[in-house]
UniProtKB/TrEMBL annotation:
This is Small integral membrane protein 15. Residues 79-99 are annotated as: Disordered. It comes from the Bacteria. Keywords: Membrane, Transmembrane, Transmembrane helix.
Length: 99
């Protein structure tokens, strides 16, 4: 899924053009205004829902990145501990100690 951000929610000129056209129709045909008002309310609801979804997507992606960072740190610590253990084993005598 491609990464999306809240900045994708900005209204484009074509969307503003649609609302401008609808408002001009309301001025031409006053009886048409309730239908257009419902359409605009629905559009705002969809916009707000999408905004909420994108915010949730960003939050989940942030948590996932944080989890991956933690896993990388743990893997690094395990590798370093393994190297230290190997070095300690090499430095100890092979016969189990001095007599």
């Amino acid at each position: 899924m491609p990464s999306q951000s809240v900045t994708d929610l900005s209204i484009s000129k074509t969307e503003l053009g649609l609302f401008d056209t609808l408002l001009s129709k309301v001025q031409e045909l006053p009886w048409y205004s309730p239908l257009i008002a419902l359409l605009m309310i629905l559009s705002v609801k969809v916009y707000l829902q999408r905004s909420k979804e994108l915010t949730e997507i960003e939050r989940l992606q942030s948590e996932e990145r944080k989890h991956l960072r933690e896993m990388k740190i743990k893997a690094y610590e395990i590798r370093m501990q393994s190297k230290r253990d190997k070095q300690q084993r090499k430095s100890q005598p092979a016969n189990g100690g001095s007599k």
